[in-house]
Design a protein that fits this description.
With 415 residues, the protein is α/β, with parallel strands linked by helices. The protein folds into two domains: 24-272 and 320-400, Metal-dependent hydrolases (TIM Barrel), CATH 3.20.20; 273-319, no CATH class. Helix content is 47%, strand content 10%. Strand 7, helix 10 (249-257) and strand 8 form a beta-alpha-beta unit. Helix 2 packs across helix 15 (363-373) and helix 12 runs antiparallel to helix 13 (299-316). The termini are far apart. Residues 1-19 have low confidence and may be disordered. Residues 1-19 form the signal peptide.
Length: 415
């Protein structure tokens, strides 16, 4: 009897950590919730607040509101999202400034007891100690700089601490994943010389280079050009889900080798191959109905029509799950290492997220699932925010090393 027990114990010890079932206690989950600095590197609730939504009131259609953030979230990178349409007539900078203002005015200034303006890793740590949420900003869409390094520097001065080089649209200096197959778009084979100047100036300023949304060649050019670690603020693993917004294993390994992090996106199409495959044809068939709903002038009628379409869609395509999130995190860790994975939820920017993780107050469920998978408390703290803090500090240090002399060229026309 004793021999069998010893043998069983030896077999258990020989199993990989992730294969051992750990029964997490509530005390463990609570301790990690309290101690970890949960940093979300991409949240689009700003597209609502800029239109008048008060983040302190219930967000009935989305994932982000103050009640569900408090006590769980340590730092938020609010998206300064500039749609491609603002490039028409050079309105991108105007929109970027409006989005920056909604973070600084409608979120931080309107709720000073709960949010604090932050621009550095130390600011985030300080906010956590004060039991406040650190509010940071990341520009989504490099066309927001209107091909000017002067505007890039202005955005940094206003508090922006990362920029996604493209959105779904290729701009004048960087190729996007979103229109890679469009023959009508003039592509650059990655970054142009000016695009590389943008990356170098971001290094000099201390602004993180974000490659979510970029074409694969743009990723490789940015990785080669940057002298500081870079990030994927809201992406995933292409080996798990073939959506090309996700990163290949080769990309994840290379990103990690230079000290960067891939932040896992909670959008269902990023998480689940089953969802991605089932959603694509349905999205195509419902596109005309959605466009018709978007043209409705009455806000209440528009909201009702969109909600009806969303309910119909969800009834036909079940959402991704908590297990899908764990699978994405686990794959990224196996490929890039536990020091190079984080979280960028894309809350309020995607149409579908797992119901078990549809806001920050649900994160204890993810904590419990990761503990059960075999991750330690220290591993989880790294994934939740520690890794991103390390990257921020490395970017800040590189800026100090490079000094304060701006790049000579400030406009793409001078290249």
């Amino acid at each position: 009897m004793q021999r069998v027990s010893v043998a069983a114990a030896l077999v258990l010890l020989a199993l990989p950590l992730a294969a051992q079932q750990h029964k997490a206690t509530q005390a463990e989950v609570d301790r990690i919730t309290r101690d970890a600095i949960l940093i979300d590197t991409h949240n689009d609730v700003t597209s609502l607040t800029v239109e008048g939504y008060d983040i302190a009131t219930p967000n009935k259609r989305g994932q982000t509101d103050l009640a569900r953030m408090k006590g769980f979230l340590g730092a938020e990178f609010f998206a300064v999202y500039v749609g491609a349409e603002y490039g028409n007539g050079n309105h991108s900078a105007n929109r970027a400034l409006q989005m920056i203002d909604t973070v600084r005015t409608d979120v931080i200034a309107a709720h000073p007891r709960d949010f604090v303006f932050a621009t550095t890793a130390d600011d985030i740590v300080r906010a956590h100690k004060e039991h406040k949420i650190a509010a940071l900003m990341g520009i989504e869409g490099g066309h927001a700089i209107e091909d000017s390094l002067r505007l890039l520097r202005d955005y940094y001065a206003l508090g922006v601490r990362y920029m996604t080089l493209t959105h779904f649209n290729t701009n004048n200096w960087a190729d996007s994943q979103g229109d890679a197959e469009n023959p009508k778009v003039a592509h650059h084979d990655g970054l142009t010389p000016f695009g590389k100047d943008v990356v170098r100036e971001m290094n000099r300023l201390g602004m993180m280079v974000d490659i979510s949304h970029t074409a694969d060649k743009t990723f490789w050019d940015a990785l080669e050009t940057s002298s500081a670690p870079i990030i994927a603020s809201h992406s995933g693993c292409r080996a798990v889900t073939s959506y090309t917004r996700n990163m290949t294993d080769e990309m994840i390994k290379a990103l990690a080798a230079k000290g960067g992090v891939v932040q896992i996106n909670f959008g269902c199409e990023f998480l689940s191959q089953r969802y991605f495959d089932e959603a694509k044809p349905l999205q195509a068939s419902m596109r005309e109905q959605y466009m018709a709903a978007m043209k409705l002038e009455d806000p209440a009628a528009k909201a009702a029509a969109i909600e009806k379409l969303r309910s119909e869609f969800t009834s036909k395509v079940p959402p991704a799950t908590l297990a899908d999130v764990v699978a994405q995190i686990d794959h990224a860790v196996k490929v890039g290492g536990v020091d190079h994975v984080g979280l960028g939820t894309d809350f309020d920017g995607v149409a579908c997220v797992p119901p078990e993780l549809d806001s920050y107050n649900k994160f204890p469920a993810l904590t419990r699932a990761l503990l059960k998978k075999g991750y330690s408390a220290e591993d989880i703290k790294k994934i939740y925010g520690g890794n991103l803090l390390r990257v921020m500090r490395a970017v800040e240090q590189r800026a100090r090393e490079l000094g304060s002399t701006p790049a000579i060229h400030s406009e793409i026309s001078k290249k």
